[in-house]
Amino acid sequence: MSFDLGNLLQQYLGGANPNVNPAQAESDFDHVAQSVPRATVAQGVTQALRSEQTPPFSHMVSQLFSNSNPDQRAGMLNHLLANVGPSVLSSVAGGALGNLMGADQARVTPEQANRVSPDQVQELAAKAEQQNPGIVDRMGDFYAEHPTLVKAIGGAALAIALGHMAQGMQRH
Asked: Residues 84, 139: contact at Cβ < 8 Å?
């Protein structure tokens, strides 16, 4: 291994390191995400999504959606939609998401996901979090499968994720 994982993570223990620039946090996140168990990445991402030092969950999900490819968008929407009831679906974006899926369809396709706007995703994520706060954990787990995409949440949020990943590694 060309870097010292322990020393790298030590920089992030206790939260965001103000001396680390966003590009450095992205690079460090890449290295760590490739070197630790996926569950550790999921824990770090989940904590960044929950942190009061980052934008609201719904805003970050919308930002990640904007930076996703069609398959990732569909996966993200399917995770969100699996955690809300039909009434939420019909209340978001004037019912546009309910109309998009139709009554007989269980999953959003990549083509359908491309017709959903980041603003609609932000509204859906906010409603999903209100209805089921556990959605943050499920989305953190989803994003752990896509560590390159996670970099879209920005350096400060990545530093928070790295701090939580470091704490998780210390416990093991």
From this structure: no
CA distances from 65 to 31, 142, 148, 152, 169 (A): 23, 12, 13, 9, 29
Tokens in use for 93?
């974006």
How far is the C-alpha of 105 from the C-alpha of 122, rounded, in Å?
Answer: 22
Q: Where are the domains of the chain?
A: 5-171
Asked if residue 128 lies in contact with residue 23, where contact means CB atoms within 8 angstroms, the answer is: no
What b/e sequence results for 3-40 when a residue is b if at least 16 CB atoms lie within 10 Å of its CB, and e otherwise?
Answer: eeeeebbebbeeebbeebeeeebbbbbebbbebbeeeb
Token pair for residue 111? 């083509």
Question: Are 45 and 150 within 8 A, CB to CB?
Answer: yes
Name the residue among 90, 62, 94, 86 with its Cα closest to residue 76. Answer: 62
With 0-12 CB in 10 A as exposed, 13-18 as middle and 19+ as buried, what is 138? middle
Average of pLDDT values for 57-86? Answer: 91
pLDDT tens, position by position, 5-41: 777 777 787 655 556 677 888 888 998 999 999 999 9
Three-state SS at 149 = helix
Q: How far apart are CA 8 and CA 3, in angstroms?
A: 8
CA distance 137 to 89: 20
